[in-house]
TrEMBL record:
Residues 11-71 form the HTH tetR-type domain. Residues 34-53 bind DNA. It comes from the Bacteria. It comes from Streptosporangium vulgare. This is TetR/AcrR family transcriptional regulator. SUPFAM superfamilies: Homeodomain-like. Keywords: DNA-binding, Transcription, Transcription regulation.
């Protein structure tokens, strides 16, 4: 469906507010900038900011980009004949090749990463997000495979895929903090994904084949 003018303007406003906010957070620190200051810098009202973002943390981690359903959605939308683990690995590789902004493989992300790492509420949000992703994925795997409620396999597989997902982001963060360029980080992450795939057992790699 083609995006209408109203939807496009709303998306552009949302992006502008987020970009302005992140710029302020990087410059002064997440905890030292108020929503009122974000609104003033973005030339909108405080109410407008809250119309687009429920919480201050959402300005940095928008729910549509940092969604608890991320891994579950990847698995739900995989093509016929593809197992869950390979769907996640393939999706991550595609994002690396595209330099998807959600991975932080962009110039200047280092300062954003340092800002996030210095903000306890943001690091807590990321940790909670990881748990929610794993729980949502486990529910999808259990539903698709018809697993019994007390069957631990969907949870175990979801935990492994959640861990590999977290490892990718941790690797990006570590290398970003070390000052590596996005292209070098992307190449290292692709190598890491190959290593992970080589170490995963066949049962995990073939589990929940659609």
């Amino acid at each position: 469906m083609t995006e209408g003018l109203r939807e496009r303007k709303k998306r552009q406003t949302r992006q502008r507010i987020s970009q302005v906010a992140v710029g302020l957070f990087v410059e002064r620190g997440f905890e030292h900038v108020t929503i009122a200051e974000v609104a003033a810098a973005a030339e909108v009202s405080v109410n407008t900011v809250y119309n687009y973002f429920d919480a201050k943390e959402d300005l940095v981690l928008p729910p549509d980009e940092a969604s608890p359903q991320r891994l579950a959605d990847i698995v739900r939308h995989r093509p016929p004949g593809e197992p869950a683990a390979r769907a996640v690995l393939t999706h991550l590789r595609d994002e690396v090749h595209r330099r998807d902004r959600r991975l932080g493989l962009t110039e200047g992300f280092g300062r954003v990463f340092e800002m996030m790492r210095a903000a306890p509420t943001l690091t807590a949000r990321l940790e909670d997000l990881g748990r929610q992703m794993t729980d949502a994925l486990a529910a999808v795997l259990a539903e698709e495979t018809g697993a019994a409620p007390d069957d631990p396999v969907p949870r175990v597989v979801a935990w492994q895929l959640g861990c590999l997902h977290s490892m990718v982001f941790a690797e990006i963060g570590r290398r970003t903090a070390a000052g590596e360029r996005p292209d070098a980080i992307a190449a290292a992450v692709l190598d890491l994904l190959d290593t992970i795939e080589g170490l995963l057992g066949e049962r995990v790699l073939t589990y929940a084949t659609r």
